Amino acid sequence: MAMTRTQKAAAVEQLVEKLEQTPTIYITNYSGLTVEQATELRSRFREAGVEYKVIKNTMLRLAMERIGGYDEVFGALHGPTAVAFSAEPSAPGRIIKKYLDDTKGELPALKGAHVEGAVYHADALEVLASLKSKDELIGEIIGLLQSPITNVVGALQAQGGNIVGAIKTIAEKAQA
Q1: Residue 50's closest CA among 122, 98, 11?
Q2: φ, ψ (nearest 5 deg) of residue 53
Q3: Residue 27 bridge partners (DSSP)
Q4: Alpha carbons 120 and 112: distance in angstroms, whole number
Q5: Angle at CA 112, nearest 5°, toward 119 and 93?
Q6: Which of left, alpha, beta for 69 (phi over 0: left; psi -120 to 50: alpha)?
Q7: Helix intervals (H) in 22-104
């Protein structure tokens, strides 16, 4: 049953809200996946907190046009399209890459991605999958910030030991 004009407008409005709330979208070609494969892929996405939906290209384009800033992604809106919505930039890429490695398949194929304003094309799956998560980056920054402090404390303690040793040596020489 075809959607009415009102239903289409509501669907586009929901997409606009989803795009505004989600900094990362991956546009994929899912055509050729069996129902079982699609179910397995959706399950993997769900476990990682990624929403994966089949969306009509025209509706997605209308929502993107309403928001603006997605012009470079329009070239990916052809053929069967499923979109992965994620707050974590690398999560969909990692899931797709792992799924392709596990199944030794070619689907789903990345058509493009829009990650916090940056556009990635179909050949960027490796780059996207290797992006560090927000938690990993925060951990590295904290480690870098703590590193100099521990080095300074260690150096001060070592210097303190050297000074004490030097003072003892001088005191012993003075007494002798």
Answers
A1: 98
A2: -135, 145
A3: 83, 112
A4: 6
A5: 95
A6: left
A7: 35-47, 57-67, 91-103
169 pLDDT band, cuts 50/70/90, is: low
Structure-model confidence comparison of residues 16 and 144, the more confident one:
16
Residue 165 pLDDT: 59
Contact at 8 Å (CB) between 83 and 27? yes
Distance (Å, whole) CA 101 – CA 133: 20
Pairwise CA distance, residues 119 & 65, whole Å: 15
Residue 174 confidence (pLDDT): 67
As a whole number, mean pLDDT of residues 21-44 equals: 95
Res 170 pLDDT > 70: no
Instruction: Report d(CA 133, CA 35) in Å as an integer.
Output: 30
In this structure, the strands spanning 51-54 and 118-121 are unpaired
DSSP conformational letter for 124: G
Helix (H, G, I), strand (E, B) or coil at 123: helix
Mean pLDDT of 16-42: 95
* Backbone region of residue 172 per phi and psi (left: phi > 0; alpha: psi in -120 to 50; beta: other values): alpha
Q: Which amino acid is at 60?
A: L
CA 105-106-109 angle, 5° bins:
140
